[in-house]
Amino acid sequence: MLPVIALIGRPNVGKSTLFNQLTRSRDALVADFPGLTRDRQYGNGRVGDSPYLVVDTGGLVGGEEGLDSLMADQVWQAVDEADAVIFLLDARDGLNLSDEQIAERLRRSGKRAWLALNKSDGQDTDAIVADAYALGLGDPVPIAATQGHGVTSLINRVLADFPAHEEVEAEKRAHKGIRIAVVGRPNVGKSTLTNRMLGEERVLAYDQPGTTRDSIYIDFERDGEPYTLIDTAGVRRRSKVSETIEKFSVIKTLQAINDADVALLVLDAHAGEVTEQDATLAGHILESGTALVVTVNKWDGLDEDQRNWYRNQLDRRLPFLGFAERYFISALHGSGVGDLYKAVKTAHRSASIKVGTSELTQLLEKAVHDHQPPLVRGRRIKLRYAHQGGQYPPVIVIHGNQTSRLPHTYKRYLNNYFRSALKLVGTPIRFEFKTGDNPYKDKRNKLTPRQQRQRKRMLRHVKK
Length: 464
Description:
This protein is an alpha/beta fold. The chain has helices spanning 15-23, 67-81, 97-109, 126-133, 151-159, 165-174, 190-198, 250-259, 276-288, 304-317, 339-351, 357-370, 408-422, 449-463; strands spanning 4-9, 41-47, 50-56, 84-90, 112-118, 140-142, 178-184, 216-222, 225-231, 262-268, 291-297, 325-328, 375-376, 379-380, 382-390, 395-401, 430-435. A 6-stranded mixed sheet has the order 2-3-1-4-5-6, with helices on both faces. The chain has a 6-stranded mixed sheet with strand order 8-9-7-10-11-12, sandwiched between helices. A 3-stranded mixed sheet has the order 15-16-17. A hairpin with a 2-residue loop joins strand 13 and strand 14 (379-380). Helix 12 (357-370) packs across helix 13 (408-422).
């Protein structure tokens, strides 16, 4: 499973800024005043070929009361869920009593922790580095989260203690059969769907949110083919969650998504609309690269107007899932559930496709012939050849010149063209664009004797 990294520290030390750097997003709100982050924020990140999950938390000051006490409980629960912890210090403010209290509790937790000395740009950090050693958490790493300085070095140190991504993927693919994760908000019918797909009452299904508290892996066979079904806890809106009533683990669900070959995103048609939580969860699935089947449950009992309304909601709220098939089912009565296996196989086949370099290059030539890349500064962007860079999801590497200036609209065109030509359904496609170095960039032309004489004559005229 993916390593989980929690970010903790005092208020306004730069945790949310570091979160945005590690996830290459702007999901966390950032402002120059303390206490902005109160709930845990989850995001996917990747450095090189190593993916990970990051958890942003609220600030700790020690002796919290009231709302701050609940926030502190959320922080330490994030530490319990995490595999590693990055403890941020402020290089401009130096250490104080709160830092010492956090470090003491962090040592008691037994979690592997790294010290990050943030806002170290332009600062003489020798004094605070010396003080930071007294916290007993190892060598502090100077970083500047706002500019991104030192962040890659920090995350590489953290990930060095975890198995290489290639080893994790090899172990995952060694498992025979397709892994199917059933994900969605609480009470949309995930456990009922799991039982219906298994043909028995294997997991507890009850008409109350939060019945499932952990991800449950179930191996089974259907028509002689092995599968693993993963029933996950419902991901509910953060404002509806408190420490005492929390019935799910977001971390477990996100890890199950990354562990699966295909995710069934279960939506509730009776809810009347596609909610923000549905869209957020769909975004996590898309970022993970897991193949996807959109499953709309509780479709029975809706009249034609209600069904048309919900279809319009899907188009409006989830336009980025246009590559995924949609199935409208009733998990309680079983209608449409059998068709999901065909969709799962199609999505898995698309995610694991292998295409030769010659075929991909020919497709690229046809795409460019049909629609040329735009001019940039008077020069045409040239795309020369393509090859496959990976599977789960398919990765297509395209080589050319000025590829960094290729507009998003043309990248979208290539995505749609390759998807249609390769008949890929239910899986995202990732493109990597590489520009080759000019071999003559740093070389000077060697002039012939005649060219040297011409140059001397020209320079004499210039001097006059």
